[in-house]
UniProtKB/TrEMBL annotation:
InterPro entries: Mem_transp_PIN-like, Na+/solute_symporter_sf. Its main location: membrane. PANTHER family: AUXIN EFFLUX CARRIER FAMILY PROTEIN (PTHR36838:SF4). This is AEC family transporter. Pfam families: Mem_trans. The chain crosses the membrane at residues 6-29, 41-60, 72-89, 101-120, 132-153, 173-194, 200-217, 229-251, 257-277, 289-313. It is found in: Cell membrane. The keyword Membrane applies. Belongs to the auxin efflux carrier (TC 2.A.69) family. The keyword Signal does not apply. It is a multi-pass membrane protein. Keywords: Cell membrane, Membrane, Transmembrane, Transmembrane helix, Transport.
Length: 314
């Protein structure tokens, strides 16, 4: 019992600060200290500048190498691909117009902020570098799957491979990771002044991003949440991590890689699912409900899952 309490305490030390920062953002927004315009501008700053800086300098300075991480990356990609048809089958009883938002909410996680923050809390810069590489691979698949889903289920969406490839190539997070890998590969040496500046930018990323996510939460939506929203949240927080852990086990990943795989898989639904649902004619209300529910419940599921991993994969 004492051992389990120690491992659960470790799990809470990973997920708890993230949840509390989200809560602070929510409270500050309701108190009028974080305006909607500030949250919009800060979110753009994080996505376009500080998060790419965090990813670039962390990967560039870490000991993580793409060739060494291929089992983790392949396990993450295969597991994520498998969750899409499972989510599609789960969504079959829903109305046709709700399925795209349900499926995307059920498999698309908030890797760039919450997943990375959990990985950094649990394993420091080494875990963050692993998570960043895994995030890049899975994010590319997320973009392909999400656009394809809305193209199938929405009359407003017109699928275009050209546009999709442009979106992926212009994604600042993917660009930052690729540039970091290239810089490491060619042995580039950066001036200390540049590295220090990058560290300054990177250091504000996760706190600012988490405050913005918390400020954007609308808990009043929970009162209007449907069975579909709870079902999608349960799928995202329970089924997706389980599927990826099974694939990771088949790949015989070490304990840290398994934990990184779990933490990214257990991340709540990404805010991008709401944006795409609204833009491409899906059920944006359902998408918003899934985000709110999965974000609140992820503190419980991620903490419990990480504690169990620490017990069975010490």
């Amino acid at each position: 019992m004492e051992n389990f309490l120690a491992t659960f305490s470790f799990a809470l030390s990973v997920t708890g600060p993230i949840f509390l920062t989200l809560l602070i953002g929510y409270v500050l927004a309701r108190a009028g200290l974080l305006s909607e315009s500030f949250v919009d501008d800060a979110s753009k700053l994080v996505f376009l500048v500080t998060l790419p800086a965090l990813l670039f300098f962390n990967i560039f300075s870490s000991d993580a190498h793409l060739g060494d991480e291929w089992p983790l990356l392949l396990a993450g990609l295969i597991g994520t691909i498998l969750t899409v048809p499972l989510a599609w089958l789960t969504a079959r009883p829903l109305e046709h117009g709700d399925r795209s938002a349900f499926i995307q909410g059920a498999f698309r996680g908030n890797l760039g902020i919450i997943g990375l923050a959990w990985a950094a809390n649990a394993y420091g810069s080494a875990g963050l570098a692993q998570a960043a590489l895994l995030m890049a691979v899975i994010t590319i698949f997320y973009n392909v799957a999400a656009v394809a889903l809305f193209a199938v289920y929405s009359q407003k969406a017109k699928f275009s491979w050209g546009k999709l490839l442009k979106d992926i190539a212009r994604n600042p997070l993917i660009v930052a990771i690729v540039l970091a890998l290239v810089a490491k590969g060619v042995g580039l040496k950066l001036p200390q002044m540049v590295v220090q500046t990058g560290d300054y930018l990177a250091s504000v990323t996760l706190p600012l991003a988490l405050l913005c996510i918390g400020a954007s939460l609308d808990l009043s939506m929970l009162r209007r949440s449907s069975f579909g929203a709870f079902l999608a949240s349960g799928f995202k927080l329970l089924v997706v991590p389980l599927v990826l852990l099974v694939i990771g086990w088949l790949f015989r990943l070490d304990s840290q890689s398994m934990a990184i795989l779990f933490l990214l898989a257990a991340a709540p639904t990404a805010s991008a699912s709401f944006i795409m649902a609204r833009a491409l004619g899906g059920n944006s209300q359902l998408a918003a409900n899934i985000i709110a529910i999965s974000t609140l419940l992820s503190i419980v599921t991620a903490s419990a899952g990480l504690a169990l991993l620490k017990v069975y994969l010490p």
